[in-house]
Amino acid sequence: MKKFMALSLAAMTALALAGCGSGTSATTAAATEAATEAKDTTAADTTAADTAAADTTAAEKTASDKTYIINTDTTFAPFEFENEKGDLVGIDMDILKAVAEDQGFSYEVVPVGFSAATTALEAGECDGVIAGMSITDQRKEKYDFSDPYFDSGVGMAVLADSDIDSYEKLNGQNVAAKIGTEGCKFAESIADKYGFTVTQYEDSATMYQAVLAGEAVACFEDYPVVGYEISRGLGLKLLPTIEAGNSYGFATMKGENPELVEMFNKGLANIKANGKYQEILDTYIAK
Q1: Would the pTM of this model clear 0.90, i.e. be above it?
Q2: In terms of residue numbers, what domain contains 253?
Q3: May I have one GO cellular component term (predicted)?
C-alpha cells in the first residue's frame, strides 16, 4: 500500500512538473514572437524615416542647385544695356546680382527684348523677367510681382533743336514708342485727343533712331531711360512734363515660382538696409 502511494505521488509530481514546463515554453515562445514583431516594426519605421529624410535632403539639394532663367530687355539703359566690354550691366542687372548673392540662389540672364521676354515667361521658357517692367493691375492678373524696386514715370523726348514743346504740337504727326511699355500705352491713350499716330518699335535704340532720322517727331519713354541716353550724347531733349508712372517690379508667372519672388523681396529689403541699393542707383543716375 505504501509502495503504491509512493508511486502515485511520484506520478502526480511528474505530471505537475510537466504542466509547469509546458506553460513556461508557451510564454517564452509568445514573448519571442512579440519581440520579433516589435523588431520588424522598428526596422520598418526606421527605414521609412530614413527614406523620408533622404527625400527631403534630395528636394532641398535640388532647390539649392537650381539655376533660374531670367529674361531681360536688350537695350533699356540705365537698367540693362551692354557696356564697352560687351557685358550686360545696368540697375536691373546689379540689383538682381546683389539680391541673388544675398539670398544664395543661382541664375542665368537671357537678353531677348522686352516683348520677347514676357512672351517667353508666359510660354514657360524662363522663370522670371526683370526689364524695367511696370507693375500694373492688368499685368498682375497674369504675373506675380516682387515689391517695387524703382519708381518711374513717362516722358516725351524730341530732337534737341525741335520747337515741339507740348502735346498740342504733335497734331498730324507720327510719334514713336516701344511695344508693350508704359510709354507706348500712354502715347496711345492720348493719340486721339491730340491728333497724332503711334508707330511701335521692338527696342529703345530703334525707337530713338526713328526720331533722329525724322521718321517720328517724338518718342515716349520712361524718363530715367531716355534721360540717361541724353546725358551720354543722344541728340534728343526731354520735355519737362513727366507723367506719373508705375513702379518697376521683378515678375514671375502667377503661381509658378513663389519662392523666387520671396527671395527677391527679402534680398531687396536687405540691400536697401545695408546701402547697396542706393550705391547701385548712384552708379547710373547722376544726382
Answers
A1: no
A2: 67-149+249-284
A3: membrane
